[in-house]
Amino acid sequence: MNHPQSNEENPFQAMEARFDLAAARLGLEPNVIAVLRACEREITVSIPVVMDDGSVRVFEGYRVQHSTSRGPAKGGIRYAPNVNRDEVRALAAWMTWKCAVVNVPFGGGKGGVICDPFKLSKGELERITRRYVSGIMDILGPDRDVPAPDMNTDGQVMAWLMDTYSMHQRSYIPAIVTGKPVSLGGSLGRVEATGRGVMLVTREALRHLGMNPAQCTAAVQGAGNVGLISALQLQKLGVKVVAISDIHGAVHNPKGLDLEAVRAHLQKHRRLDGFDGGTRIGNAEILELPVDILVPAATENVITSKNAANIKAKIITEGANGPCTAGADTILDQKGIFVIPDILANAGGVTVSYFEWVQDRMAFFWTQKEVEDRMEHIMVESFAAVVDMAKRFQVSNRIAAYMLGVNRVAETTRMRGIYA
Ligand code: GLU
């Protein structure tokens, strides 16, 4: 277990710590707090899979629905060796608050399968996916729970999910999942959406703080779909990206990285190792570089009470879910760092997932420009709403974002009433 209980690195406790602060500041009634703190439904499935060598291995998978108060549960599926139930619960709750912050009509859910996709063949991955989907299928549905990609899952995995579900239902049901390939009812602009959203809220933060992007540097932790695209998008904005990392380490070039070369290297080797356009540094070091913008876009708990004091960036844009612990929040606040919290910063992905779901249900597809314009509008408005909340209540951006999201879910919870 990678996340020991009862310490700052338990992600569900990290979520609850912020939720409690926001609920107290909003003055929520205890009954509503009790409902919102609990996950509505969780299932654990065992996933027996015939491996390529003929042996059978049994994997474990989860799907957690934290809330369906505002709409179907929505959230990704991650494949990772250290994923665990508490982490999936936290990620599901973060999806609830995130969807509410950007005001899309979804609740929150998340799924996970304990496996190491880097050690599996494509056939094994497909069999794991199909068996996992058939195990959780009873609680899925376009009006119940709509999965999407997350760490180590992609359009291909979503295509297998859509096919498995559709075969069982004897119908073509693309709206069961988002993040699909465009040819299967995916949306234009979905692949780039999270990274583009990271750029848009960073741009808004720079405007808000009166900083010029062309005079700013950035370091990006993570080179997956979120990290790499955030880096490319920030560069387009005029920011000089000086460092990027993957799980094995980082590359640093104070003159600015050639990100197209990084992308080509990653496509060829699947890891940054051997990239010669910069100096090799460690994954902890990248967080402490003297840059203006830091984008943690890898995983949870990378900025904690142990290293928060060493952060030099003026802006932290959380591309990952839960990269800062609650202990780190206090230190970052004291240092006056402008944190754009995960449930706002990485919400571009689920926003375009919402557009994908809408398009699938209409069977009528939008242009890339329509997708981008609508997403930009939502991200810019949500950023303004969070900053406004922070000012009005004199709280951090993080607590302001929670207050905005939690309040919207509290409202529907109250209106729907307790069905007892
Ligand atoms: N996995 C992404 C997230 O954490 C996207 C979820 C979705 O599009 O449903 O926000």
Overview of this structure, please?
It contains 13 helices and 12 strands. It is of the alpha/beta class. Among the domains are: 133 residues, Rossmann fold, CATH 3.40.50.10860; 154 residues, NAD(P)-binding Rossmann-like Domain (Rossmann fold, 3-Layer(aba) Sandwich). The chain has a 7-stranded mixed sheet. It has a 5-stranded mixed sheet with strand order 1-2-4-3-5. Strand 3, helix 3 and strand 4 form a beta-alpha-beta unit. Helix 1 crosses helix 13. The N terminus is likely disordered. The site of glutamic acid (GLU) has 11 residues, from strand 3 and helix 11.
State the helix count: 13
| Topology order in helix (H) and strand (E) letters | HHEEEHEHEHHEHEEHEEEHEHHHH
Hetero groups in this structure are:
glutamic acid
CATH topology of the domain at 192-345: Rossmann fold
Number of strands: 12
Task: Please indicate the percent range of residues in DSSP E strands (runs of 2 or more).
Answer: 15-25%
- Extract low-pLDDT stretches: 1-6
Cα shape: globular
Cα distance spanning the termini: 37 Å
In the CATH hierarchy, the architecture of the domain at 192-345 is 3-Layer(aba) Sandwich
Structural class: alpha/beta
- The average pLDDT value, as a whole number, equals 96
Strand order of the largest sheet: 9-8-7-6-10-11-12
As a percent range, the share of helical residues equals 40-55%
Largest sheet: 7 strands, mixed
CATH H-level name of the domain at 192-345... which superfamily? NAD(P)-binding Rossmann-like Domain
Short description:
The chain is α/β, with parallel strands linked by helices and 420 residues long.
